[in-house]
């Protein structure tokens, strides 16, 4: 499928068709007829069109009629837009699954599934491709990036990407990672001395964008050094993230929206920043083999054709967003959960002090000893995955059987990580609590009451924080290395507490699900350990 929606696609969509026909009805210049007649005729037209759409969507003739779900969601996607606008999609999906069970109709032509046996059928090799939800997020002036490609084209591009994340390549990034991580703790220390408290949400944003810019383009962002986001990139990205999340629910609006002056302002500004980074990278080169090196195939390993510059720019820009937001959110969530559960913080601190007794925590060769920290990280990614609901896959031609239902072509299928991870069929007991030991083997776990063997359920296939299958997170290993380094360095350097007046009970309510997650300030006091 091409990047743009063709006029035929648009005309097949009832909402757009209604709008176009409505406009035509209103502006037809038949002089002898009164305007009131026009208003009456178009009103009657709209009312009958709308009621027939609603009746069909609620009727037993609709192909998804057997899938249970709330009436508002069955009737229109506009309801999802409203929920998304409020950033409450993950909460709404959880409530729907609690009420209707493991398979829910969440839109007229959309379902959500939290049955782990559907994971391979949806995300595995030969599963469902990405569809219009992803296309709507794609800047139509730029070529497709890895996130929106499907099938053979995706596999070809992914081969090039994979080279940037093989063990040798990842080792090469350790030096720049250590530099950014050290700048982060130095920055937190200085800010704490000045102001007594520090907002981890902001500082993790600075860190992750600086590191990603360095990793992708060999530099270009200096928020840590400046202690602020001088160019306003974070605000730009937040705007981009929210508009992207909204239009993805109503792809027909994407065609119109792209033509409204100003609607794509944040995308254009973001592209302009990326072009500055590209110019710099081309002019100065890089000290290490960065992602740009691999994506442009500077080593000339591609036998058939070299990657096109326009495609590399699109991928590089996507990499910054995909890698920075997610890691920053994961780090913030981790520190929230560990400070909320001080008994685990204590054990974590002892482990970090033992593993790094005589070394700086930037030494990644010791990360294999961080078993408890790793378990805490997995548990925080389970309870609060950075992609709370994620994007849906689309049923291809011919339809598919998924989770016991036959789904016709075009059906959107969600596997929402936030809800899947809180399904007691997948993780039990204490499904909604922070219990890191559920990730440890019985030998490493010393707390049987927390983690009883009988009746325990721990379905790793249901753990979707990094997705699953051929389009899973390509940066997963780098992200883990990065997070383990930052967390151990911070624990080694500081003692943390929530800041005075910080409402730790209500902080999760500040989380907004816009595909990526936005969240409120996480205010802490960081005392340097002696
Ligand atoms: C805690 C950190 C991270 C989390 C939780 C995470 C999560 C995810 C998830 C859930 C997906 C699938 C998205 C979808 O199907 O819609 C994904 C894809 C992707 N991630 Fe990550 N990610 C993280 C860090 C990174 C980093 C550091 C990079 C580095 C560039 C990265 C690059 C990508 C790319 C390029 C894709 C698209 C892969 C494809 O379509 O083949 N991610 N990530």
Give the mean pLDDT: 89
Which structural class is indicated by helix and strand composition? alpha+beta
Uncertain regions spanning at least 5 consecutive residues: 1-12, 16-27
CATH top level assignment of the largest domain: Mainly Alpha
Strand content: 5-15%
CATH architecture of the largest domain: Orthogonal Bundle
Mass-distribution shape: globular
Distance between the first and last residues' Cα: 60 Å
Strand order of the largest sheet: 1-2-7-4
Number of helices: 22
What profile does the largest beta sheet have?
Answer: 4 strands, mixed
Overall number of domains: 2
Q: For the CA atoms, what is the radius of gyration?
A: 25 Å
Examine the coordinates and then state which fold CATH places here, giving the name of the CATH topology of the largest domain.
Cytochrome p450
- Percent range of helical residues: 40-55%
